[in-house]
Amino acid sequence: MDLKGVYAAMLTPLTEEGGVDIPALKRMINFYIEKGISGIFAVSSVGEAAHFDVDEAETILETVKVASGDKLQLFAGVTATASSTAIKIGKIAERLGYAGIVSAPPYFYQPSEDAILAYFEDINDQVELPLIIYNVPLFAPALSKELLVKVAKLKNVVGVKESSGNLVDVLHILDMLKNEKLDTSFLIGREEMYLSSLIAGADGCMVATAGIIPEAYQKIEELYLAGRISEAAEVQNSILPLLRECFKVNFPAGFKIALAARGLNTPVYVKRKLSDQEQQELARSTETIKQEVARILAFVGTY
After folding, report:
1. Does the predicted TM-score (pTM) go above 0.90?
2. Per-residue pLDDT tens for 112-126?
3. Does a structural domain hold residue 230?
């Protein structure tokens, strides 16, 4: 499987009661099709996957599949505390005809490296879909470079989504995959590192703000391929203030505010109830986040 370009780690629009806002989800898919991105990662970390049960995940995956009309490459997040749950969601994605699945190591408990390998082996054996390994130390046990390469040797593994934010590890992982002669695609999972990862040999990105300002990531790729590296760096740097603002408030509420700024009428509700202080912080950041989205789009439009 050839994984290249810009993939959106997709937010999940919710109703005020916490259910999936299906009409808003459909509008998001239409937006991604219109923008011409490579594909999406549904039931993702930024999409609040940890809060959904299997039935809710199925609702999201079914809605995304129907709305996409086979115009996007679709990947389903299956990360869970146990491989049995990951396999259930993976089987749903398999039935729906998804291009593949994405899984981080099992979270919450502290599994050994042998237990992590067994988790991936179980998914690999039970789900007949291409698998992207997801290294995201923010939310799950970190995969060592050695373990990641070992997992990459499983028959269904086609890619790595690397979200550690560690450029040193990125360089070593790319080199180790090459040395093992593994035909494994590499997608960076941290927005700040898209250009540097392309230069290092990455194939693309799979990030949250690619679903909000896809134009910026497409422009970075375009300028990089044209050899206009300094200009690509300017676009890359233009994204940084937005990311800082989004992370100032409860994750992923800041990203939902940014998406709403695109005029898609998407709600900003999150699954977890916010404290009064968090709601106040969110209100203070809302206008700044909206201004940052507008600024980036205007800047990208100058190229």
Report:
1. yes
2. 999 999 999 999 999
3. no
